[in-house]
Amino acid sequence: MTRPNTMKALEKSEPREGLWMVQAPVPEIGPDDVLIRVNKTGICGTDIHIWNWDEWAAHTVPVPLITGHEFAGEIVELGRDVTGLEIGQRVSGEGHLIGTESRQSRAGKFHLDPGTRGIGVNEQGAFAQYLRLPAFNVVPLPDDIPDEIGAILDPLGNAVHTALSFDLLGEDVLITGAGPIGIMAAAVARHAGARNVVITDINPDRLKLAEHVVPTVRTVDVAREDLQDVIAELKMKQGFDVGLEMSGSQAALDQMVEALVMGGKIALLGIPPGKSPVDWSRIVFKAITIKGVYGREMFETWYKMIAMLQNGLDVSRVITHQFGVDEFRDGFLAMKSGTSGKVVLNWR
Ligand SMILES: NC(=O)c1ccc[n+]([C@@H]2O[C@H](COP(=O)([O-])OP(=O)(O)OC[C@H]3O[C@@H](n4cnc5c(N)ncnc54)[C@H](O)[C@@H]3O)[C@@H](O)[C@H]2O)c1
Ligand SMILES: [Zn+2]
User: Fold this and answer.
1) Residue 85 and residue 108: Cα distance in Å, rounded?
2) Where is the Enoyl reductase (ER) domain (predicted)?
3) CATH assignment of 159-292, given 3.40.718.10, 3.20.20.70, 3.40.50.720, 3.40.1410.10?
4) What's this model's pTM, rounded to 2 decimal places?
5) Nearest ligand atom owner, CA of 121
6) Is there a catalytic annotation at residue 49?
7) Residue 188: its pLDDT value, please?
8) pLDDT tier at 1 (50, 70, 90 boundaries)?
């Protein structure tokens, strides 16, 4: 391609609230990298933290930095040593950059590498017309997966990684938090053959969206309805077999522990704002297994997620807004409203 020198990019240019559209140099790629022309990106809760410049962001994100980590695009340049990928190929990719020296990586558990660095958080990100990515991180998009779905594979991957942490076939599953990820997890739990899938929230708009995306899910507004009544209504004998915590709320985790069967299992994706008190003796006496979930398994989550998308998993309605990138402020406003699903920005 005739390579432009500069590109539009959404940057954290100063250590204060906001993001700024700047002209940035198009990244130079190394021998093992590819250059991706970005078509669509998803806005993540993480990007809102970075926009707001809260304590976490101020401690984590270097300035200046191009933000964003959820993307789909096409390959326009291949590094000298890259094999197995092609110019023009439609791709998404894993935004966690890992090393290969740690014990975990050498055991093939790349997602557990303690040296993991995130694009758009620690390294230059995807809110730009071009993105440099190690070829290792690239995930080709099949023709039947459109770019807007490609742009939300990162959070769908969080949902898939969490939901597939435990066997769901025939199980009763409780999901706390009907944000975009909780809603997608409900769709995955259905696809994976769960019996009852119940999702809670305290925001009625989010529960409405959950019903819109996954019509067979039972939504519960825990501000108005008691989970124990729902357990009785669904004729479950003891409670839920598996819990997927996707709100980061301590109240939700407490409710989940109470609503689980003896020997139940919990996968925790939600990130509490700080330390949060837990009634450990309840967890011990109920013999509950708890697993923390970070990111996506490289690359088993990507494999399963694409296979499910090609075999009937439909999360398209979780995308509630699409904006041209020049209207990025409207996109962030929609996200900040707390009522949106996924918000996608178009870069072309
Ligand atoms: N571990 C990871 O790798 C990882 C990756 C991405 C996101 N996350 C976290 O996963 C969570 C879900 O992400 P998201 O983008 O869908 O977030 P989100 O903030 O859009 O959704 C969280 C939902 O939880 C709801 N909620 C609040 N209190 C509740 C309660 N008591 N009971 C039930 N629901 C309640 C909120 O109303 C909101 O709708 C967040 O905590 C996010 O920080 C973790
Ligand atoms: Zn994200």
Assistant:
1) 22
2) 18-345
3) 3.40.50.720
4) 0.97
5) 2
6) yes
7) 98
8) low
